[in-house]
Design brief:
Number of strands: 8
Largest sheet: 6 strands, mixed
Number of domains: 1
Strand order of the largest sheet: 1-2-3-4-6-8
Structural class: alpha/beta
Distance between the termini: 41 Å
Mean pLDDT: 78
């Protein structure tokens, strides 16, 4: 765990860990940020192929010692980015999901978000 000076002058302890999965041409990443001031924050960006989702779940449960993801991010609906996210949504508590607007992608009906019980569409204002 490192330490840095905050704007108010006191020292604060913080840690940032980024775990990038070796998933070939796909993308899957888990991130954990821990600070004295804010506690722990866990995020997942993209899930790789379907077979990679359980690896992300293992990182969160076994390495981060948590069953909660604060933020799940889907950058776009290609199967090598989203297919593994279904396992994350099924196995872990996910507080917030940031997802592209599926209507802007021609394959919008092919991805799991439209049918997953934890994700509901939100209209732009």
């Amino acid at each position: 765990m490192g330490s840095c000076l905050n704007p108010c002058g006191g020292a604060t302890h913080l840690s940032i860990e980024i775990d990038m999965l070796a998933v070939g041409d796909a993308d899957a990443m888990a991130l954990r940020h821990v600070s004295d001031e804010y506690g722990e924050f866990i995020a997942i960006s993209d899930g790789g192929h379907k077979s990679h989702g359980n690896k992300l779940v293992s990182i969160v449960r076994d390495y981060y010692q948590s069953d909660t993801v604060d933020l799940l991010i889907s950058t776009h609906p290609d199967q090598d980015h989203i297919a593994g996210l279904e396992a994350v949504l099924d196995a872990l508590k996910v507080k917030r999901v940031w997802v592209h607007d599926p209507s802007e992608h021609p394959t919008a009906g092919a991805h799991p978000y439209g049918r997953h019980p934890h994700v509901s569409p939100r209209r732009r204002e």
